[in-house]
Design brief:
Length: 75
């Protein structure tokens, strides 16, 4: 079994963490923005605000995409 050098371990770890962190941040930011839009619309227009159900569906789709990216079971 071949041992990896410290610089190589750091590089591999950095590359993996960079991908994971940036993609997670993207999904979290997207979800936060979408939930904020729903909240603003709900406060301004109430539960039957224009296209609020579409905004809620967007949050569900983004959440499922995030779970898929995390390789988690949505059930």
């Amino acid at each position: 079994m071949q041992m990896l050098s410290e610089p190589k371990k750091k590089r591999i770890s950095y590359e993996a963490n960079t991908k994971e962190i940036f993609t997670s941040n993207f999904f979290i930011t997207l979800l936060a923005e979408q939930v904020g839009q729903i909240a603003e619309k709900y406060v301004a227009e109430g539960w039957f605000g224009k296209d609020i159900e579409v905004d809620i569906a967007d949050v569900i789709v983004a959440s499922l995409a995030y779970l898929n990216w995390l390789e988690k079971d949505a059930a």
